[in-house]
Amino acid sequence: MRHLLSAEDLSYDEAILVLDTAKELAQLSGRSVKKFPTLRGRTVVNLFYEDSTRTRTSFELAAKRLSADVINFSAKGSSVTKGEGLKDSALTLQAMGADGVVIRHSASGAAHRLANWVDGAVVNAGDGTHEHPTQALLDAFTMRERMGDLAGLRVTIVGDVLHSRVARSNVVLLHTLGAEVTLVAPPTLVPVSVHTWPCAVSYRLDDVLPKTDVVMMLRVQAERMKDAFFPTAREYSRRYGLDRERFAKLPSDAIVMHPGPMIRGMEISAEVADSPRSTITEQVTNGLSVRMAVLYLLLGGSESALRNQEAQG
Amino acid sequence: MTQTSTTASTPVRVIRGARVAGGGPDPTDILIRDGAIAAMGGDASPGADSEAVEVIDATGLIALPGLVDLHTHLREPGREDAETVATGARAAAMGGYSSVHAMANTDPVADSAGVVEQVWRLGRDAGYCDVQPVGAVTRGLEGQQLAELGAMADSVAEVRVFSDDGVCVSDALLMRRALEYVKAFGGVIAQHAQEPRLTEGAQMNEGVVSDRLGLGGWPAVAEEAIIARDCLLAEHVGSRLHICHVSTSGSVQIIRWAKSRGCDVTAEVAPHHLLLTDDLAASYDPVFKVNPPLRTAEDVSALREGLADGTIDCVATDHAPHPIEAKETEWSNAAMGMVGLESALSVVQHTMVDTGLLDWAGVADRMSFAPARIGRLSGHGRPIAPGEPANITLYDAGATREIDPAALVSKSGNTPYRGMRLPGSVAATLLRGTPTVLEGKVQ
Lengths: 313, 443
Description:
Chain A has helices at 12-28, 53-65, 86-96, 110-117, 133-147, 165-176, 205-208, 233-240, 244-247, 270-273, 280-299, 305-311; strands spanning 43-48, 69-74, 100-105, 121-127, 154-158, 180-184, 200-202, 214-217, 255-257.
């Protein structure tokens, strides 16, 4: 694997390798010195055309923990605002000798385009409404930590599937890993060809919750509301929000996930979001390990990261 | 193909041994004098009184009536970095065209007699083919107020085709008025059928591929709903309606239904919609980004069938040149459109002739007679027969070529066929008896 552009790029074995590597790297975060030298001398560029402090920081810290040199290239205040196109930015990075480029962009397919123009590894950190593969990996990692093997796990993804790169990547990756995915959303927020996706679809959350091991709430993008995808925030919340009553319909060991940032009160009640069965903060922590694993595997090697680290002393 | 000549003062030309599309099985000679076909067959001897004779050896070539394109973007005025009237007309000649209709979405928009006359004169001065301007339906293509349709019709350009192509005339009342108004001078409204609200943010065909790629979907119904509405409007007011670049199976069905009701509707299909499908977008290469978008294999099949049975009247290129920087970018930022003048005949051969759906007489109809009839051109789309203007395309159907963007005559190289091997090659194009292309080269 040269790049990570899409969850579709990952075979079962490759996905498991990333998750196993992330598990090993997570153990290192408990040490007093959290940094190790695997990517020393390598340069990773965070090319962020869209604001995303959390994802950018996560990638930045992941690269720094692996001792890579990190350059943050944000569209704001850069040559991009002066009209420089993606290709020119790519050629600049190429000239600087970037070994890896982490790209976040509002255009679907931007990471694919970039991969045609640079020699280094490209990691898709979210492209338009297409994919966000490291988010799916960190979600899978979190489920694995809490629930064990993903084969046969019943995962319900709730909300604005249509515009969600997180949902898209999760459906693909979770299917690869053997989980059974059900999407729940109003019909206006489900893609027209969803019947061809490897998942089930329901419009009624209450019917699905009792048969759910993991419920993943999606962010409802406020700017979508004016487009008549649903009548009002109140009606959405009533039908698709996860409140205390709905939470009670879940099996007792089921967990609740959210990629954040969340709208408390509408998508999810505060009480559910803060419950011990919510993994929302764990997801952030796990994101670091997963991104370290991805950078390590793309830029460092295919051996076990920990063995590699230990061999280096 | 070779050309021999004697000392020329008033050249008389003889095309030797071409097989006329739709003519008899035997090759024939065609004598051209004063820009018209003077004689054919056994009568095609230049005679002893000829001052000069140029012979075009067309052994093995098919003679088609000079092709007519109802839908070309020449970009001038305003975007001369993408194409000019002269470079576009040269590309048209290379593709076998003797006449093209230049779309109105220039800058300034061709919505007045002044602009259409400018385009018409630029075409005449370039001399590669006749450039017939299309007039805008509404001022500035804004869909608010009718443009001065009558002034454009009465101008030296004699505009008969009106279109806001690029945007749809979505206001039903304005569309009705436009259809009614052009009846006064035999005009036709060529509609870009795209319901604007249903296609907000659209980037490609809505379906399995768009959902996978996370690109905004352009649903087929956005085209079909407008076509259905406009067919009913045209029928109601008794006007001529033309549908630009039909792209869906449902559209073909609606047009077939409208024609069966007696509605005076005609339609065109672009070559790329006869060959390419939306799965090509998976590369995220914007060379495949076009409006209307590439659709599914089922749509392609229905379009071929519709063109074969005459539901779709003609092939129109929708030649849409763009400079490199407009395409070498992210998909959603890239310009829509692809060049097509120089590959259209090859694509039609590949998709319609080599598949047995259309013979060469059918190609002559769909690429010359029908578009000329729809555009009300008098000097084009005429049969290859004595007394007719000598607008002739000589085509080598046995050749094959690999499409190389750098080798195109068009100023832009945004062809979706890059690296593809396609059949056929235009050997010569004659405009009123004068070669604009000879031995495959622009003259």
